[in-house]
Design brief:
- The structure holds 2 protein chains of 2 kinds.
- By secondary structure, chain A is α+β, with helices and mostly antiparallel strands.
- Chain A has one domain: Trafficking protein particle complex subunit 3 (Muramoyl-pentapeptide Carboxypeptidase, domain 2), CATH 3.30.1380.
- Helices cover 42% and strands 15% of the residues of chain A.
- Chain A contains 5 helices and 5 strands; from the N terminus they run E-H-H-H-E-E-H-E-E-H.
- Chain A has a 4-stranded antiparallel β-sheet with strand order 2-3-5-4.
- The longest helix of chain A has 26 residues.
- Chain A is globular.
- The termini of chain A are far apart.
- Chain B is an alpha+beta fold.
- Chain B has one domain: Muramoyl-pentapeptide Carboxypeptidase, domain 2 (2-Layer Sandwich), CATH 3.30.1380.20.
- The radius of gyration of chain B is 17 Å and the shape is globular.
- The relative contact order of chain B is 0.17.
- Classes of the chains: A alpha+beta, B alpha+beta.
- At the A-B interface, strand 1, helix 1, helix 2 and helix 3 of A face strand 1, helix 2, helix 3 and helix 4 of B.
- Strand 1 of chain A pairs antiparallel with strand 1 of chain B, so a sheet runs across the interface.
- Chain A: One of its GO terms (biological process) is endoplasmic reticulum to Golgi vesicle-mediated transport.
- Chain A: It comes from Durio zibethinus.
- Chain A: Part of the multisubunit TRAPP (transport protein particle) complex.
Chain lengths: 196, 186
């Protein structure tokens, strides 16, 4: 007996019911590069100056960072969250970097001049790989997107900070390296001191 | 020297540099969110996503042709197969299949097995008209236009809207013969 006119009932699958992927799936680097390039180009049409462009890229990155923290804490860290400064910095430098960029960051350093500053450096940020900045855009760095990701992770983990991306020319290298500068809010340092 | 044989999607994907799909997924999510905030109208966001896809497609085709060594496709049927088996695989790491050919062979459906754009995504009630993956339709349209095929690409099924799969309809409108930019001297 044939079923006639069986309508398809729309199944709205609740995203929380689906199992979480293991995070091993990959896409080509060029697919990401194309997408990132469109993100930057679209934002260029929405702003009047470099500072605004950097801010928009940072905001886009912030949303990514907040979600990455939730995802990683749940999947890889068994719902544990770092509560100490060095712990969260190490988490960003190693775990977050490894998941997003396939490797741990090149270096993590403490600022020499200020107590509240730390720097994560990378010889060539993935997002900058296919990007060249025209001279008239001065110090603009698409790494602002990554700075936003870091700020998103830190903020959501309870470590508010101002995070910016800077080009640092290196001797003997044609392309400057990128340093993500993290300046923690006062409350973070006070809490850290209290925790001993 | 004989031309190199066309490479399979798997082989190319294994040979290119790859990144974590989650970075890709989350970045795409950030883009859609930005567009929704800026443009507010869901229809406008659909159009913008398609335009962004088009911009990507017209550049992506060069990389595709360079890496895949496909020879000129004999007909549209071959074109669709190549997009599904090689194109999607080498860029997004997923396979797709081609179905629902019409009588002329000018219209078909590409069904995605998997879609890295939509991991972790749920459409809120306020965005029910949104074609979240509309960037893909722009990419295909842009890429095909660069190889002289004018197409119309639309979504037939979208899992974020409650369907059971992701299905794109690709309709060949016409083939524009390549024009030389210079007129031959008379």
């Amino acid at each position: 007996m044939k079923m006639i006119g069986v309508g398809k009932i729309k199944q709205y699958c609740n995203v929380l019911d689906k199992s979480l992927s293991k995070g091993k799936q990959e896409v080509s680097l060029s697919a990401f590069a194309f997408l990132f390039s469109e993100l930057v180009q679209y934002n260029q049409t929405q702003v009047d100056n470099i500072a605004e462009l950097e801010r928009r890229l940072e905001d886009a990155g912030y949303a990514v960072g907040a979600r990455v923290l939730e995802l990683l804490c749940h999947r890889d860290k068994g719902n544990r969250r770092e509560t100490r400064l060095l712990g969260i910095l190490s988490f960003v430098h190693s775990t977050v970097w490894k998941v997003l960029f396939g490797k741990v960051a090149d270096s993590l350093e403490k600022g020499t001049e200020h107590d509240d500053e730390y720097m994560i450096s990378e010889k060539e940020l993935l997002v900058n790989k296919f990007i060249s900045i025209p001279k008239d855009m001065g110090t603009f760095n698409c790494g602002a997107f990554v700075a936003g990701i870091v700020r998103g992770v830190l903020d959501s983990a309870g470590f508010p900070a101002v995070v910016t991306a800077h080009f640092v020319p290196m001797e003997g290298q044609q392309r400057p390296r990128t340093t993500i500068l993290i300046k923690f809010a006062e409350e973070v340092l006070r809490r850290e001191a209290r925790l001993g | 020297m004989p031309p190199a044989a066309p490479r399979s999607g798997d082989a190319i994907f294994a040979s290119v540099e790859r990144v974590n799909a989650e970075l890709f997924t989350l970045t795409y999510g950030a883009i859609v969110r930005q567009l929704l905030t800026d443009l507010e109208e869901v229809e406008e966001v659909n159009k913008q996503l398609d335009q962004m896809g088009y911009n990507i497609g017209i550049r992506l085709i060069d990389e595709f042709l360079a890496k895949s060594n496909v020879s000129r496709c004999v007909d549209f049927k071959e074109t669709a197969e190549v997009i599904a088996k090689v194109g999607f695989k080498m860029f997004l790491g997923v396979t797709a299949s081609v179905t629902n050919w019409d009588a002329d062979g000018t219209c078909c459906s590409i069904v995605l097995d998997d879609n890295p754009l939509v991991d972790f995504v749920e459409l809120p009630d306020t965005c029910q008209g949104l074609y979240y993956c509309n960037i893909l339709s722009g990419v295909i349209r842009g890429a095909l236009e660069m190889v002289s095929m004018k197409t119309e690409v639309t979504w037939i099924r979208d899992m974020l809207r409650g369907d059971d799969a992701y299905e794109l309809q690709v309709k060949l409108l016409n083939q524009v013969p390549e024009e030389y930019p210079y007129k031959d001297d008379e």
